[in-house]
Amino acid sequence: VAMAKSDSMKKEINKFLYFYRFLATVYGLTSRRIMYYLQAFKILALGYWRSEQKWKAYGILAVVLILNLASVFLTVLINDWYKEFWDVLQAYEFDSFWYLVGKFSLIAAIYIAIGVYSVYLQQLLQIKWREWLTDKYLVRWMENRAYYKLKLMGKDMDNPDQRISEDINQFVALTLSLTIGLVRQLITLVAFTVILWNLSGIMTVPIGSYEFTIYGYMVWLSLVYSIVGTYLTHKVGKALINLNYEQQKYEADFRFAMMRVRENTESIAFYRGEKPELENFLTRFKIVIGNFRDIMTRQKILNGFTAGYGQLAIIIPLLLAAPRWFAKEVQVGWIMQVSNAFGQVQGAMSYFVDAYTTIAQWCSVVRRLDGFNRHVGEALDLKSDLMIDNASNITVGIENVDVFLPNKNKDILIKDCTIDLMKYQSLLIMGASGVGKSTLLRTLAGLWPYAKGNVYLPKEEEFLFLPQRPYLPLGSLRQAISYPVVEEVISEKYSDEEIKEILIACKLENLADKLDIVDDWSRILSLGEQQRIAFVRILLYRPEFVFLDEATSALDEDLEGNLYDMLKIHLPNTKIISIAHRSSLIAKHQAILRLKEKGCWEIHE
């Protein structure tokens, strides 16, 4: 019997321990999640509130909070007005009726004015905070070519453009809305708890032979009701956090797919790729719709619960006040005042119930911006053993450079390469596909961090790198030609006639009269025309060194040769380093650097 009791006790103890471990696990997960969001919020928010704009921001925020405090005070006055008004109606005091109507009109007018300016100043603070945060994120994204390194590292987060444009806006708007709303509800809670406590009076609850006296019983009931409602709301709606996070990602992916088609219309048209592109659109859109349906389902359950929760809160104070009313202890004005005060207290205590959907959106936005910060931070922390010396007075070239792939084995592409670029007027880099020709050029440009050795370059304004597909920014043709130099600089240095002459020299006479036309030139111009625009830039910048990565691949051999000859005529002192596959360019260069497999290389003069 003793052993049986002992075993039974052990089972009960084990059950308790399992339950305790379950609670501890839930608490641990919840606390870690809360700490994560608080830490991420601290990183995202504190920068602005410690910046050079902090005093103006604190000033606007203080005014908004004061206006909200005044709004709560007016709400208290309206609560008192309810009692007066309904008591007057019950007593049929016609003269007092019009006085109270006028009193309410004055309070309401002040309340509306305060509400209008509170929202206006909150939006003013929102736009200033967003402006500051967007500027910082853009600078961080572009700093030290982080946008480029993210792709090299294979950690490019989805749609960084959306995170900067939309997520920052949502983060600022939701943070201000939730914070100011929370402060307002805390002020409301304090003010109306005192009112409700005084109105509640005392309740005596008999339990057996004992009687328990509860002071301010409506306040305690409101507290219990709100705690239960908050807990159940979280259980019902917590899935919305991940669903909202995924929805933003899927929506951005869908938009990006359409943007890709817009940028590659001609290629898709040549391939007759409308069907696979349409299928891709529909597939991505089905994912958007599927996830949104999950949000709808979860939102339906949450809305049903919160609606029932809110409606029940209306009837509870009336049920509690009914005994005193039917006992003829109070007037109708007291009931209306109690009902309004209970609603204010219960609403303040149930803030997280009412704002749960907004909090879920805020959490998903914080996760996305925190992910952006972490990925950009990893890109900025990416260290390289490559030493780059700009503005070198000794030489221009590379010394003992090893270039390798960013894989686990760090496979060598180019080994122990030393080239003095000052020695050659023109150098052609050749080799089979995949041996590292373009990667060597990226290393020279300081773009490829997976290398070691020394790189010597002149000042930035003295060299120019041309990729195979030139980048043409949105804007006028003059801006496209001037990129990356500001067009005003080019306009000051060259007249329109001189720019037109250069366009004609590069066989772009059809563009000579379109300098100020604004359009998407990367879409209008063929790849061959875009490559000739790059040669226009060379003639405008007149660099000492120009690096061309298959920059004439879309041109015929005759035009390609003419452009190289033109560079030698107009820029006789400019040194040219080219990557190409065509043997026709061998005659246009003084020396050839041949890259081979396993990191081998050799120069033929």
Account of the 3D structure:
The protein is 66% helix and 12% strand. By secondary structure, the protein is an alpha/beta fold. It has 19 helices and 14 strands. The strands form 4 sheets. A 6-stranded mixed beta sheet has the order 8-11-12-6-13-14, sandwiched between helices. The protein has a 4-stranded mixed beta sheet with strand order 3-7-4-5, covered by helices on one side. A two-stranded antiparallel sheet has the order 1-2. It is elongated.
Brief overview:
The chain is α/β, with parallel strands linked by helices and about 600 residues long.
Give me the secondary-structure topology.
Blueprint: H1 2-49, H2 54-91, H3 94-142, H4 146-152, H5 160-200, E1 202-207, E2 210-215, H6 217-237, H7 239-263, H8 265-271, H9 274-326, H10 332-349, H11 351-354, H12 356-380, E3 385-389, E4 397-404, E5 412-420, E6 426-431, H13 437-445, E7 451-456, E8 463-466, E9 475-476, H14 477-482, H15 487-493, H16 496-505, E10 518-519, H17 521-524, H18 527-541, E11 545-549, H19 557-570, E12 575-579, E13 591-595, E14 601-604
Parallel strand pairs: 3-7, 6-12, 6-13, 8-11, 11-12
Antiparallel strand pairs: 1-2, 4-5, 4-7, 9-10, 13-14
Helix pairs in contact: 1-12, 2-3, 2-5, 2-10, 3-5, 4-12, 5-10, 5-12, 6-9, 6-10, 7-9, 7-12, 9-10
